[in-house]
């Protein structure tokens, strides 16, 4: 699997001819969502500029992202799961984006570094949520009973087990898009740049 990830990264430049839209150049059905994102964030994330080529994909991601924000997981837990999955999927754009997101949610620098390094955070709750999110992603939903039990024993609920399915779905949408489209980092995200480890 690692070999495949390395091959995909090596082909990024060959696959990077997907348009990087602006709110004006995008298909009409995507323009309102791009303008809303730019207004909310102060810049247009390049992932949205790439997704805009398929307005339904952009709408799906933005809608699901809004739904995920309503889950019973804390904002730091939400971002930790997304960051951990993105790192495991070797998605440099999303690791940078969720590094910013988890910092904004209040995570300390040690936690952020651990997650970017694909290590276990020292906080017990964050350790549990990221471990289970990574397991769920790697197993494509076929969670082992021991992993499920450990997550529940850490104080989480069956509801939150299923809420992490949303995290996996979100990162499938964005990580896969970035792999296909070769999404470049925005200038605002370059200080948070990340490279997948060699092993």
Automatic annotation (TrEMBL):
Q: Note the superkingdom of the native organism.
A: Bacteria
Q: Locate the Carboxymuconolactone decarboxylase-like domain: which residues?
A: 55-118
Name the Gene3D superfamilies on file.
AhpD-like (1.20.1290.10)
One of this protein's Pfam families, by short name? CMD
Q: Which InterPro entries match?
A: AhpD-like, AhpD_core, CMD-like
State the NCBIfam families in the record: ahpD_dom
Full protein name: Carboxymuconolactone decarboxylase family protein
Organism whose genome encodes this protein: Vreelandella gomseomensis
